[in-house]
Sequence to fold (423 residues):
Amino acid sequence: MKKDPVTTVIIPDVINVYPTTRTGDQIFCSCFFQLKQQYKEKNIAKRIFIRLQSYYNISFMKPFFIGNIEIKTPIIQGGMGVGISLSGLASAVANEGGIGVISCAGLGLLYPKGKGDYTEKCICGLKEEIRKARQKTKGIIGVNIMVALSNYAEMVRTAISEKIDVVFAGAGLPLDLPLYLTPESKTKLVPIVSSSRAAKIICDKWQKNFDYLPDAIVVEGPKAGGHLGFKKEQIQDEKYALESLIPEVVAIAMSYKERKDIPVIAAGGISTGEDIARFMQLGASAVQMGSIFVTTQECDASQTFKEVYIHSKPEDVLIIESPVGMPGRAIDGEFIRNVEKGQEKPKCCSFHCIKTCDYQKSPYCIIKALYNAAKGNMKRGYAFAGSNAFLSEKIRSVKEVITTLNNEFLLATCQLAPAKMKT
Fold:
């Protein structure tokens, strides 16, 4: 019988050349992707990976499902508004096997030539961004819709009618989200929560009122960028850390297992492949990442906005008060300092973009501030950002970011001593 070259030649050669010391692990990871290219045409790369995975006790990021949709790279790009994550960034992430997410916030400002009032312009903008994304990718596209938006219902209806793959809804409890599904809808519904209690409430309400359970649940911890579902005093409290929240929400999801598999997605402050591996060990099926994609070539924000991230320092990332009525995390700047001095109070409001916002009491107009920043006018706005935004060093492509995360994940799962391989 002819001997298998994978077992008799390739595997032993790799093991001999790349010993399992810590330095060896690092070299091995580098070698691993070279092997993939070298043996791709001989159709044995997959077999090499499986054997080496067994020998080195390593693991790769595994695909997961949201309903019947397979996500080959378990990374969801977080929705970032206004104008930060549109069709450009979303399609690039989708092309790498993740879920690319278009933010619905403030689309009316980005499409001022659309017909009608602000809400109608938002509808027009969402349709156009979904259309653009579909032209650039065959991958999975989602939209992020804040429950706090005054046009929340219109945005959900539009996204579903445009056959978006996934709706992510947060900044409030989306208790009526399944109401907008039609009999022919294939859109998946994913609430974003900040506690196991919120996850339980949503699951029970949806099950009772709509005979429906979430297709997945995003758990956003206190290190996230943008609006936070925590009180100020909870943000630094370890009881509310994402590491504590994930097992709790996984337990909630598992309690409905007889009816539906509900994957849990970790979000907030995740910036490396090592982070991804750690949260998957805690039970998460995937992660949501936002800030890491801001400093990419494909991100829809201006170059000036991206440079704010690159030039930021740890002390620049701070907690602010938002007109939405929630704390938020942002990068300090001239505009935020002017807000603290009371110099940015709006004199009128043409949008009423947030349900709870009263412009006469608001310290500033959040939609204008975020729009201005996205366009590069940092004197008239600011950048929302996650706790690790200051780690950004340069502009990269989305493909480079995903490749680095895969390599880091691989390295994080390597063990110092390999399991004995059976040949």
